[in-house]
């Protein structure tokens, strides 16, 4: 456990994390910690006992690789009493445990917060579930799209009348993982004052509801049930997707000053006195007419021409890129979003952290580990000699 390993950052140097997670939400949480320099140990079942279930994609696939960079790996059979005892030895020296078992599973295995905090009262124990640690849905299996539907997101995504549409990324999974990591960091800060650990838990459903943001607040505060608005912003008009001579662009021309600049740039200063469009309320009431008149004009020039002209005028406007174009964009490249490491003499790209710290930045420093790659080194760090390690392997404890 004390073996020197490449460090992604010095920000979380000295913090040890036991990663018991799989699929996406949990690994996302652990990745956040690994990318900021924590020693994250990914714990899996021994290969001989592994079901081989490819949930989360194959180990050599881009999804798994991007989720598990900057980590170490070992195997422990948590269904065996000796495996649980070994995990407790690790937990006694660790700072954080991250898990995303269904709530009943960790209790059945004897590795829940109560069990592990008994051997280490300073332990931060992070749990991510589908729907919460208790309540009527607690033991339901949780998947991102289920949370998107249950959490209301699919009812406001897509074109009006289209029917429910999922978001194109696993947003509930990702946000639950990021929020859990944030909770871990808060708990680590609090531990500096109290000297005590605590149980941190989030769920896909809670994350999804929080991410509704102003759409959720419209219901909570005003009883307003938002509907699908397609590419139109539900409240800021005109904001949406507009056809150009060679594609489409996004325009956000809301607010009095921006709308004035927008109208003049499109050669339509008459909109400023047109009673259908002269106020925000009028533009909202006449959204379709407003959009139709804009589209007639934007169709006369290319996307690049409009993006340049509108941004020059101080009107928010941008292209609608495919994934390749998004990563090839000059600003994306300038920001260094993609970080590369060599493998077999070839560069492998990873998507780096979106937050920059001036003194302790995050880097991708190691490829995802092979299954059990660091088992022996970690056991040696716990005081096991070569014979004891060989015995644990022989009996499939690790």
General description of the model:
With 398 residues, this protein is of the alpha/beta class. The protein is 39% helix and 14% strand. It has helices at residues 25-35, 62-67, 81-93, 103-109, 113-117, 144-150, 171-194, 204-211, 214-222, 256-265, 280-285, 287-298, 303-312, 323-328, 330-335, 375-381, 386-394, and strands at residues 16-19, 39-44, 72-75, 96-99, 124-129, 199-203, 239-243, 248-252, 317-319, 338-343, 346-351. The chain has a 6-stranded parallel sheet with strand order 3-2-1-4-5-6, sandwiched between helices. Strands 7-8-9 form a 3-stranded antiparallel sheet, covered by helices on one side. Strands 10-11 form a two-stranded antiparallel sheet. A hairpin with a 4-residue loop joins strand 7 (239-243) and strand 8. Helix 7 (171-194) packs across helix 8 (204-211). The model has no long low-confidence stretch (mean pLDDT 95).
């Amino acid at each position: 456990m004390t073996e020197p390993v490449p460090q992604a950052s010095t920000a979380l140097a000295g913090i040890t994390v036991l990663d018991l997670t799989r699929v996406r939400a949990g690994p996302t949480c652990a990745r956040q910690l690994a990318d900021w320099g924590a020693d994250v140990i990914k714990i899996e079942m021994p290969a001989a006992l592994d079901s081989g279930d490819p949930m989360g994609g194959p180990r050599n696939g881009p999804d798994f690789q991007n989720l598990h960079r900057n980590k170490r790996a070992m195997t422990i059979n948590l269904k065996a009493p000796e495996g649980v005892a070994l995990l407790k030895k690790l937990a006694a020296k660790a700072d954080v445990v991250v898990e995303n078992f269904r709530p009943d599973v960790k209790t059945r295995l004897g590795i829940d917060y109560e069990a592990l905090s008994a051997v280490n009262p300073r332990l931060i124990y992070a749990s991510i579930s589908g729907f919460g640690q208790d309540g009527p849905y607690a033991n339901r299996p949780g998947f991102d799209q289920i949370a998107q539907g249950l959490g209301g997101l699919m009812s406001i995504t897509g074109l009006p009348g289209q029917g429910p549409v999922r978001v194109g990324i696993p947003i509930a999974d990702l946000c639950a993982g990021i929020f859990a990591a944030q909770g871990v960091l808060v708990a680590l800060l609090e531990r500096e004052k109290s000297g005590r650990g605590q149980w941190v838990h989030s769920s896909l459903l809670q994350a999804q509801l929080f991410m509704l943001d102003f759409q959720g607040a419209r219901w909570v505060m005003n009883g307003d049930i938002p509907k699908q608005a397609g590419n139109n912003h539900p409240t800021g008009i005109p904001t949406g997707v507009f056809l150009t001579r060679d594609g489409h662009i996004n325009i956000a021309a809301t607010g009095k000053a921006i709308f004035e600049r927008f109208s003049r740039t499109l050669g339509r200063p008459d909109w400023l006195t047109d009673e259908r469009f002269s106020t925000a309320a009028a533009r909202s009431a006449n959204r379709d007419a407003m959009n139709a008149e804009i589209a007639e004009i934007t169709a006369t020039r290319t996307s690049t021409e409009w993006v340049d002209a509108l941004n020059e005028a101080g009107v928010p406007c941008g292209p609608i890129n495919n994934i390749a174009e998004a990563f090839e964009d000059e600003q994306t490249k300038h920001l260094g979003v993609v970080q590369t490491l060599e493998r077999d003499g070839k560069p492998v790209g990873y998507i780096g952290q979106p937050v920059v710290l001036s003194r302790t930045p995050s880097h991708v420093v190691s490829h995802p580990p092979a299954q059990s790659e660091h088992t022996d080194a970690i056991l040696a760090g716990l005081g096991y000699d070569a014979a004891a390690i060989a015995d644990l392997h022989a009996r499939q404890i690790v």
